[in-house]
Amino acid sequence: MIREFRDFIAKGNVMDLAVGIIIGAAFTAIVNSLVGDIINPLIGLLIGGVDFSNLYWVMSGEVPANAGLQTARDSGAAVFAYGAFITAVIEFLIVAWVVFLLVKAVNRIKNSAVRKGEPVPSAPKGPTQEELLQQIRDLLAGRGGNASPAE
User: Fold this and answer.
1) What is the distance between the alpha carbons of residues 151 and 147, in angstroms, rounded to a whole number?
2) Total domains in the fold of the chain
3) Which residues contact 137 (CB under 8 A, 6 or more apart)?
4) What is the CA radius of gyration of the chain?
5) First-to-last CA distance in the chain?
6) What residue intervals traverse the membrane (predicted)?
7) How far apart are CA 54 and CA 60, in angstroms?
8) Buried residues in 47-67 as b, exposed as e (16+ CB within 10 A)
9) Closest CA to 85 of 50, 54, 51
């Protein structure tokens, strides 16, 4: 059983998955920093200096005036944190864009790896229409049918 487990772990797919998860976690930290430290302040600047990540609406409860999102949440009020949601959407779009670019780059590398000038194997060609008709004629003639060869 231990040998089977070792063989399972040593397979390339499991190791590739582990590396992907580790790189994904590190990449998430980079994207969070990009959105929180660069993009949100720029958007906040465009919409009048508002802290984009702290945009919320109090649905019920008491929140001190000009309190940040975390303070509003800590006060026990029910808040609709649309700024946090918009931040998550921006993070998703950035990750999706980067993954798209990575897949595009990998596909380009794969396509360029195919040697130029190497003939691409084509599908085997089937019989022509005339050859098929001759085969049908020969089959009918072989069964004693009334088919006569047309020359």
Assistant:
1) 12
2) 1
3) 147, 149, 150
4) 33
5) 74
6) 17-35, 79-103
7) 17
8) eeeeebbbbbeeeeeebeeeb
9) 54
Encode pLDDT of 74-131 as tens digits: 888 888 888 888 888 887 888 888 788 888 988 888 888 775 656 656 767 888 888 8
Is residue 7 included in any domain, yes or no? Answer: yes
- CA distances, 45 to each of 36, 48, 50, 51, 57 (Å): 13, 5, 7, 8, 20
Q: Which two tokens stand for residue 113?
A: 């790896």
Cα-Cα-Cα-Cα torsion 78, 81, 85, 87, nearest 10 degrees, comes to -150
pTM to 2 decimals?
Answer: 0.51
Tell me the one-letter amino acid at 120. Answer: V
**Is residue 151 domain-resident?**
no
Polymer length of the chain: 151
The CATH number given to whatever domain includes residue 12 is 1.10.1200.120
Question: Ramachandran region of residue 128, left (φ > 0), alpha (ψ -120 to 50) or beta?
Answer: beta
